[in-house]
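explain this chain.
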Amino acid sequence: MLLECAGKPLDLTHPVVMGVLNLTPDSFSDGGKFLSRQAALDRAHAMVEQGAAIVDLGGESTRPGAAPVTVAEELERVLPVVEALAAELPVPVSIDTSKPEVMRATVAAGAGLINDVLALRTEGALSAASESGVPVCLMHMQGEPRTMQMQPAYSDVVVEVNRFLAERVAACEAAGIPRHRLLVDPGFGFGKDLHHNLALLRHLDRLAELGLPVLVGISRKSMLGALTARAVEHRLAGSLAAAVLAVVKGASIVRAHDVADTVDALKVASAVLGT
């Protein structure tokens, strides 16, 4: 399957890695490391050299407890980097945002995919995404970043997450976004406790039954810390294990901080799976 991302196709015939580039001072793993434009550009080029098939830029932290930023702040962080990378990279640039103003501005600057943790529920986001012409990833989150991890609760997390995403897909289609431009993400760690996250990973193949590419972001997350008792900077092994399990269960895109290692792990998994 090919996703057309603003003139740069993303080939999902095999599972691929989405490199994470946080242009924020407060992201849980690498906040503050790539605040300068040059540091961000260097990091993006390095990830592509390591095998990233797409680079995901974010200008607002969505870690638990994160404070919101204004449209102006977010654009100041991401727009110059999107413009440069869209011109320089051979792979698509994704914008991780929930704000319709940021969607419009960054797609106009060359972003080829919208990655929205709120699944286009912000007022104006559906129309902005529809008019953009680029693919959109819809993620599930219970609550919002400041409060989502306080007391997440579900009757059946797998059923409820899958139902929510199916409903958001229907809303997108009604707004003029065709299915071939949609991806889904169960939202590991977004309003879920450890048991919820494990259930979602265990039954990820049920989400794949929607017939859309599945994106997963498990890299370095707290669920891995809970299982391994490792600090954020020492969760590579757990991240790779989770990435491979996700691909076995049908994931097409793995969002990762440690690009080279994840690319290697997915090459082995793909060879065994015959994908």
The mean pLDDT is 93. DSSP finds ten helices and ten strands in the chain. Residues 2-266 form a domain with the TIM Barrel fold (CATH 3.20.20.20).
